[in-house]
Write a structure and sequence with these properties.
339 residues; alpha/beta; eight-stranded parallel beta sheet; 11 strands; binds magnesium ion
Length: 339
């Protein structure tokens, strides 16, 4: 199969209110993202990723010129070809996902079935994004409970760890049947607080008391020894890898004992084929694989198909961004799109 065209549509949706996520030092008034469109033999495929004009420029010039004329049969795409995304400090997972979408449409099958999956349902966990007060968090969790969601991930990045723990304790007190996870967003954080290994261990030990399901990204992404040390010193499962890419990088992380839960994302890595190999590697090491899936709309959908193609034991949940509650709808039903 050859690609006849690669097009990228950059969209900017004004948000209902400015949103400040825990991992960003500024509020966002607008959500900017790209829809990736591929065409081959009259068939179209789509995906989306949270990158803007630079992504469009890179895909419609360098990438398009490189891939046109090459064999792009989906399972035969060489990882070295997808790695050219790293030249621009960006990934080509969204391009690879769009090709999967095209192939699935051409074959007349939902993608997860094309991949051999048979799951009709994948459990979601509600992923918060903001550092809200205890009262605001309780209001949000109440909404999740009304939606039938019984696993919620809280963010821990306040100046004082005690303040993070206060929010967690309030949720445990008011929702004793809920299961909680905690995301510290330390792996790629570009502003403080930066946790030390001892701070991460202190948090992990606290979380043990509340039977928290996992602690996500408690340390800088390259402190692989720290991740292993933490796993050896706490009963809490340690998760990570959401912005990593490359099968060999994941192999190194897994072989070095960094994670209990591997969280590759199909649009931020080099795509679905790579993620399925990473998932198989996780399975061989008796770990879990649960894709990161914060991009709303098509990015989330790609990761849902990835999750549905895997056994539930290996991939029990799909992350679902629900903070603000309307975040999941942002790039699907935005009413004021501007190209
Ligand atoms: Mg995360």
């Amino acid at each position: 199969m050859k690609l006849d065209d690669v097009r990228v549509h950059v969209l900017a949706i004004p948000l209902r209110e400015p949103v400040q996520f825990s991992w960003e030092p500024f509020p966002r008034p607008v959500y900017v993202f790209s829809i990736v469109e591929v065409e081959s033999g009259g068939h179209m495929g789509y995906s989306a990723i949270e990158f803007g004009a630079a992504y469009k420029q890179f895909l419609e010039t360098t990438v398009k010129m490189v891939v046109q004329g090459l064999n792009m049969e989906i399972e035969e795409i060489d990882p070295r070809l997808l790695e050219i995304g790293s030249w621009a400090i960006q990934r080509l997972g969204a391009l690879e996902v769009a090709i999967w979408d095209l192939v699935a449409k051409r074959e007349g099958l939902p993608l997860y079935k094309l991949l051999g999956g048979s799951r009709r349902r994948v459990k979601v966990y509600a992923s918060t994004g903001r550092l809200l007060s205890a009262e605001e968090t309780l209001e949000l969790v109440e909404k999740y409970a009304e939606m039938g969601i019984n696993v919620v991930k809280l963010r821990f990045r306040r100046e004082k760890i005690e303040d993070d723990l206060e929010v967690l304790k309030a949720v445990v007190r008011d929702f004793p049947d809920l299961r909680l996870a905690v995301d510290a967003n330390q792996a790629w954080s570009y502003t403080p607080p930066y946790w030390s290994r001892k701070q991460a261990l202190k948090v992990a030990r606290e979380l043990e008391k509340y039977d928290v399901l996992w602690l996500e990204e408690p340390l800088w992404k390259d402190d692989i020894e720290g991740y292993r040390w933490l796993r050896e010193n706490t009963g809490i499962e340690i998760a990570g890898g959401e912005l990593e890419h490359g099968l060999q990088r994941f192999r190194m992380l897994i072989e070095n004992g960094a994670f209990d839960i591997v969280q590759a994302d199909s649009v931020y890595s080099n795509g679905i084929a790579e993620c399925r190999k990473i998932a198989a590697l996780a399975e061989a090491f008796e770990l879990k694989f649960m894709p990161h899936a914060w991009d709303p709309g098509l990015g989330w959908l790609a990761n849902l198909h990835l999750a549905a193609s895997l056994p539930e034991k290996l991939c029990p949940y799909i992350e679902t961004p629900l903070d603000p509650l309307w975040w999941s709808d942002v790039n699907v039903w935005g009413s004021e799109w501007k190209c």
